[in-house]
Specification:
This protein is of the alpha/beta class and 216 residues long. It has helices at 32-43, 71-81, 124-131, 149-160, 201-213, and strands spanning 7-12, 17-18, 24-25, 47-52, 64-67, 87-90, 97-99, 118-120, 138-145, 164-169, 182-188, 193-199. It has an eight-stranded mixed beta sheet with strand order 5-4-1-6-9-10-11-12, sandwiched between helices.
């Protein structure tokens, strides 16, 4: 396990994809997991750059904190800071799509039917991984699934050429968002599977950083 301080880039929170000055598309991510990993890493003496979408959480002290709103801005921030890190941990729930058009004025009610056209956002993690080809950077992804958790998580790890992936399942009565204990899995590219039952995000952060240390 590596004892040297690592330069860790962490993404957190949701992104917001604006339709007009008032409305946006987003998701239920709170950012708490990414912030908890950042705080745990700082306590262990690592150097942290935290790039976050909109949350109500105070930035961890001693972290380099970058606030973004959209998926495109998150991509830009990640690529600007990529060269200066040893490890990338992508907890952010980046919106997969954005409206094809931004309306500069509020869209008024009155139309019986309104069609919203979406276009796909860039895959920030995949782009960062491709840009780092040939380096020794460690890449960690996250997978939130509604079924086939192990299969889908490992498929994402292989497709994006990650070193580790953390997965959890969303289903009736099981929400991955917010506080409390959750069930998780961690999968390595060697197919080694760690099952974590009823762990807090703080506990997950410790176990994940231990796993990353074992790769150094």
């Amino acid at each position: 396990m590596s004892l040297k301080p690592l330069r860790i880039l962490i993404t957190a929170g949701p992104t917001r994809e604006c339709l007009d000055p008032i409305r946006f598309i987003s998701n239920s991510a709170t950012g708490s997991l990414g912030f908890e990993i950042a705080k745990t890493a700082l306590r262990r003496g690592h150097h942290v750059t935290l790039i976050s979408g909109p949350t109500y959480l105070p930035p961890p002290k001693k972290a380099k904190f970058i606030s973004v709103v959209t998926a495109l801005k998150m991509k830009d921030a990640v690529l600007r800071n990529l060269a200066d890190c040893d490890c990338v941990i992508m907890t952010a729930a980046v919106c997969d799509w954005r409206p094809s058009k931004f309306f500069s004025n509020k869209i008024k009610r009155g139309k019986r039917r309104f069609t919203l056209k979406l276009i796909e956002n860039p895959d920030v993690l995949a782009i960062a991984r491709r840009k780092s080809r040939g380096t020794k950077k460690i890449f960690v992804g996250f997978s939130l699934e509604t079924k086939d958790l192990v299969k889908n998580s490992y498929g994402k790890l292989r497709k994006k050429k990650l070193d580790l992936i953390v997965g959890n399942l969303i289903s009736k009565g099981k929400s991955p968002f917010g506080e409390g204990t959750k069930d998780w899995i961690i999968i390595g590219k060697d197919k080694k599977l760690i099952q974590l039952k009823s762990k807090t995000k703080t506990q997950l952060a410790r176990i994940l950083l231990d796993s990353i240390g074992g790769l150094c």
